[in-house]
Amino acid sequence: IACDGDGGSVRRASCFFPRFPTGMSLIPRAAPAASMAFAGRDPAVISLLKMLPLLLLLTFSSAAAPPAAASPSAVHNNNWAVLVCTSRFWFNYRHMANTLSLYRTVKRLGIPDERIILMLADDMACNPRNNYPAQVFNNENHQLNLYGDNVEVDYRGYEVTVENFLRVLTGRHESAVPRSKRLLSDEGSHILLYMTGHGGDEFLKFQDNEELQSHDLADAVKQMKEKHRFKELLIMVDTCQAATLFSQLQSPGVLAIGSSMKGENSYSHHLDSDIGVSVVDRFTFHTLAFFEKLNMYSNASLNSLFNSYDPSMLLSTAYYRMDLYKRALNEVPVTNFFGSVMKTIHTDSAYTGFLAAHDAELPLSVGNNILDHVMLQNEASARRSNIEEMNEAQLMSHGWTEVLLEQLEGKNSDVVVMYGLGTMGILLAISTWLSM
Amino acid sequence: MEPSAKVDTQPKPRLIVRLGIFLASHHILFSALCCSAGIIALLFLPSLAKNTYLSENALIPGSANPLFSSEDVTEANKFIKGIEAAAGESRGGMEMSKFIVQQMKDLGAEVCYHEFLPHSKHFHPLKFFTSMTNDLAVRPNGTYSNSGTNTIGIIRAPRGDGKEAIVLVTPYNPQRVQANEVLSLALGFSVFSLLSRAAWLSKDIVWLSADSQFGEYTAVSAWLNQYHNPMFVGGVKHEPDGIAEKAEFTDFKRAGTMAAALIFKVGETRNYGDRDSVTMYAEASNGQMPNLDLLNVVHYLAVHRQGFRVNIETISSLLSSAWLRAIAEVIHTLGSILRKINPDWKLDITASDYVEGTANLASSIYNQALGVPTGSHGAFRDYQVDAVSLEFSPTFYIRNENAKSSFLVRGGRSVLTGLLQA
């Protein structure tokens, strides 16, 4: 199996290439270079001298980058929505109306267009059979035009294919795909994935000529988890036999709800005789009925959403899968997925460089600044005369501990760190000179 | 080892060869057996046939409002008066078609005339080898007095892409105008006028008023021939008959690929009985049938929405035959026995339904086997266009005004909702 980077084939498993150099991968790559450089000298002393600044660099880098390594404890900081309608033709008007209704709800509760990926397989609003051109309704009272202003469709018509859908989920696009068509989530994202159309036992039909299988969906979710593309994922499916579509999922942090179980059909809600077709499905209708009562500040929980589905009204059993989801459903507000409510942290002052001794973010900025300093110092010291440095090195190797203790007494840790990094930089310069 | 063992009879032939020899030697028995099995299976067929299932995923007939109202009926009545007046002063039958053309132009449709000659009686054996599929024999004298004239009106869908069309055909005989033909023309006109005002059309609509003086089939097949295989008669011009406006309508106009066709006419009053009825004819040439969903939609709409009774042609002698009734009773008892054994095995059909079903089946098989189309929808089937003929049979006296109006409403509605599915 070839280990693909991004942009490879969507169906093969990917190997995980870490983006940030963690401690483990750095040492093996650095050591051979060091040993090669010091081939002609006394290997033991010189390699030890080389190791010391490397070790120091190592500890500081790992101290400076805690958030990158620890993904389970990542903070939830953005919400994404991927809304997919997979059917075309006029008599599937209701699937389009379903998706557009969810789009409207999700936007109303706060997710902006740049974090919504809307995939509509056909154009109902401008279909010649539409008696109300450029308008899409989900109710026969025609009170709400879902296709009014501010509808941004990312994938339309024949672009909605299984391949594009899986590319969106896994993030493996061609390089020319614009940012508005990519799911740019990170490990702090909560993603809502809503799919509607015609489905069956372990599949979902796309565009009347292909199918998305449940194991493909599970594979895509597994890839997303490996790449840390989501913190939590809610999959909502409104098709016939919807619960079979997520039966193969195994990634943690995924919650899924389907409108019907295996062997059951999902039904449309009502027929609009003016337009001539059914305009909404039962499951989505009741979901919307739940959400129309909420606004951005509500803290209704997912539990109340799931309990609001009544099998006698839906004419099917809404089944949800919570075995992969660790949190209790009555503690999770629906706006965690369907809206976008940010937790704001109030700081007293704006960031003013590395002099303010406050929160956890500051060592990162301090570390970055000092690393920059080190770079500059390297360049500066390389220009000095070699003899001077050598003398300095010999001097410092004797009185090193006394000098250090002196410095440590009355100063705070930042200054000590500065001194330490400065010393390390000098050592680095020396070793570079010695290798020449 | 004994050499006698080697002296053996011929090795036995393979099983399948032996089976073939057995069959061939008793061929009379097996032929009789297979024929009787076939006939028994045919006799069982009406009881085993299930009701048509209309999948709600694809086809929801009657889900839209047909919008056919009494104003359309008034318009139709005006049309009837106009056309009767035109028929009265008709010379050579041209007045009626001119009147129709004028009405269609007023609606804003594109109009054209199509002249055709009847099929010549001569058989040209070489016709099959040349590309001359057109029967139009050009007379050297240039007399077109005994040609038929079809009138065609085309409504373009306002927001459609203009690639497909649905055809409505109303045949009439301009030489001998009858009241029921006038009614069918009025029905066609009212449907056409409603569709000209519809914003939800996705396909173009073509209305063909076929001149059936040489036979309905001839007219429709000549038009279809010109539509699909145009013959350009270069240099032959019409004598200007003194009718100036005819010249602008002689260019043959087309509307794209035909998706479906509906031929409807109002027949003679059948029985002054309970319900108006519609008779559907579906068999086309060489035993072809249209997409049976078309028949299902028409049946569903006519019966459930408009209260018509739908008939399919039957062999009426079978309806009253005693032995068929006896077979029906046998099957009925067999069905009840089977149901006692296993409730899933169903053969339940009442005796009268069985008899009628068998008569329908027999008539359909006969027509398909014969290969002669039962109406002008057969001409459409030659070009792979699904078509069905509907004959509305009113139960009222044809001159009765009120009954006419309600009949028009219902007929128009059923045609319209059938079209909306397309």
TrEMBL record, chain A:
GO terms for molecular function: GPI-anchor transamidase activity. The chain crosses the membrane at residues 416-434. It comes from Aegilops tauschii subsp. strangulata. This is GPI-anchor transamidase. The active site is at 198, 240 (nucleophile). GO terms for biological process: attachment of GPI anchor to protein; GPI anchor biosynthetic process; proteolysis. It holds the Pfam family Peptidase_C13. The lineage of its organism: Eukaryota, Viridiplantae, Streptophyta, Embryophyta, Tracheophyta. Keywords: Membrane, Transmembrane, Transmembrane helix. Belongs to the peptidase C13 family. GO terms for cellular component: GPI-anchor transamidase complex.
TrEMBL record, chain B:
It comes from the Eukaryota. GO terms for biological process: attachment of GPI anchor to protein. Keywords: Membrane, Transmembrane, Transmembrane helix. The chain crosses the membrane at residues 21-45. InterPro entries: Gaa1. One of its GO terms (cellular component) is GPI-anchor transamidase complex. The keyword Transmembrane applies. The keyword Transmembrane helix applies. This is Glycosylphosphatidylinositol anchor attachment 1 protein. The lineage of its organism: Eukaryota, Viridiplantae, Streptophyta, Embryophyta, Tracheophyta.
